[in-house]
Amino acid sequence: MTPSLVILAAGMGSRYGGVKQIDQFGPNGETILDYSIYDALMVGFKKIVFVIRKELEKDFREVFEPKLKSRAELHFVFQELDNLPDGFSVPPERKKPWGTAHAVMVTEEAVQEPFAVINADDFYGRGAYQILFDFLKEQDPASTNYAIVGYMLEKTLSEHGAVSRGICQADEAGFLQKIVERTKIYRKDDQIIYLDDDGQEKAISGETQVSMNMMGFTPTFFTFLKTYFREFLQGNAADPKAEFLLPWILDRLIQNKQASVKILPTQDQWFGVTYREDKPFVQKNIQQLIAEGKYPQNLWTV
Known about the structure:
Helix content is 26%, strand content 26%. The chain is of the alpha/beta class. Strands 1, 2, 3, 4, 6, 7, 8, 9, 10, 11 and 12 form an eleven-stranded mixed β-sheet that branches. The longest helix has 16 residues, at 221-236. 40% of the residues are buried.
């Protein structure tokens, strides 16, 4: 059974100041997502599931259908605030999406096979797609064997502000034991710093493995998502900023011994656009990769 690729693209891009999922970065107007999909197809993925807001459907179809419909099976799934279990309603002050775990949850009808999850605005590197694809194609759809691609923290920072990262702690066999979401990580002088729960600055090694929301699951994950989303809503629905996030549910599954999560280390360089000021850096990196022959000048004409 060939794994599918789920792309989380419903975010609002508040720090970026626009719809960064379809902003242009390549020499012929390519988005970051174009390069991600190109890499995914090159390693063997054949089915692409976009998770978007309904209001973005027209733009996404115009950008991606002409170049991809002959290359992959495409699905568009909508993450909306009112996609809630029975007994719950949207709080009046809620504006932002419910979070990455909710985004995955709404794809249940479109995904019946092991699947990878990525963010639409992150460049992961082809090697990361290869190791995740190889893991997923070996999994029984009924298993609870999941995976997370682990990046070196120093290869995931922005020069223009703090970032959020899931700090991974593994056992000797490379299985995730705990994941802690740190919402403010940044460079300071010659160190990498994060703020702890008390707001105190703490140094952290650049070699620390972190999650960039590149993960692999089987369809069994949907049952856990629905169960824990109810729990999340019961405790957090009134908070307009609370989010149902993938690192949180992975940590719960591990602590409750409901699933195993293998960390798949990669040496690939991540880059993305947390801030508008990140855009020139991303464009420069893409041009460098083209110059090195890793991508064609015009991505979809070959």
